[in-house]
Amino acid sequence: MHKQNCWEIKNCGREAGGSKEKELGVCPATENIKYNGINSGINGGRYCWAIAGTLCGGIVQGEFAKKKGACIICEFYQQVRKEEGDNFLMLDM
Fold it and tell me: Average pLDDT of 11-26?
């Protein structure tokens, strides 16, 4: 089963070639190869809460410490947490 990345679920259009790429830029989660494979995602696609510069509610978010409250109640975050179970990685420290 394919586990979807944030841009597939949220339909933000910020992936390379996406509908909002020119307007909002490419989301750092789509290009962050350091996090490729974490929580079964492509690049940072299933680890977006740990990456500064992602969107939430149409607003660019900063580092996790500042966006934590919004992220932990996000439906996508909850979905990844459930799908990954004991393998879920919240932060890479």
Answer: 93
Contacts of 80 (CB under 8 A, 6+ apart): 3, 39, 41, 46, 88
Q: What's this model's pTM, rounded to 2 decimal places?
A: 0.89
Backbone angles phi, psi at 85, to 5 degrees: 55, -130
Cα–Cα distance for residue pair 48/59, rounded to 1 Å? 14
Which pair of structure tokens corresponds to residue 38? 């974490």
Structure tokens that stand for 1 in this block? 């089963």
Nearest CA to 36 among 64, 5, 62, 63? 5
What is the greatest pairwise CA distance in the chain?
38
